Amino acid sequence: MAPEELRDRPDIAPRLAASTGTRRVIVADDHAIFREGLKGLLEREGFEVVAEASDGREAVRLAQECRPDVAILDLAMPVLDGPDAAEEIARVSPQTRSILLTMYSEEPYIIKALQAGVRGYVLKTQSATNLVNAIQEVMQGGFYLSPGVSRAIVQSYLGRSETSSGQLTARERQVLHLVAEGKTTKEVAQALGISVKTADSHRTRLMTKLGIHDTAGLVRYAIRSGLIQA
Q: Which segments constitute the Response regulatory domain (predicted)?
């Protein structure tokens, strides 16, 4: 069987991708010109666009058939919107991580996306580099939010002093802010003028105190605790 035929087999495609190192992506947007431009960008960056969808329901079907590594979804699509499609994709293709690519930066949209389990939220106003970084981050098991989005969520979180965030020290709140923006431990240290070891200690205490272990958890902590209202 030829390699291109193997890629069309849902039972074989994930293993083939893993063995070849190919990064397989599906793109869903109801604007054909935008999809074509996005496909060209991704292919130039070394990604394989295995399918395109014009609505959320089609994206779910293609994810189930193709088992891609990443699904890039527009937020506002016909039939099924991006967050709802992401939730369905997680059910039918658990290994596929969803990224929303959208023009909406308002908090309710972001919160709905996070609650749906998306792994990345990228604004269309950002550069192509941000989208590439988002794909690479979520493929490594991480979580990506466009910088402006991260600040909006964390500032909302930090601004609600009546909540359980009061258990955090001022320094821990600073660390939380920086970590949720996607800063590395080294970058946190540089921003706060402390050593990397000290920054790592603050981060460890913060994670331990909140009982979470990654950036996605930090953001979702605010949601679970009612710190951010959709």
A: 24-139
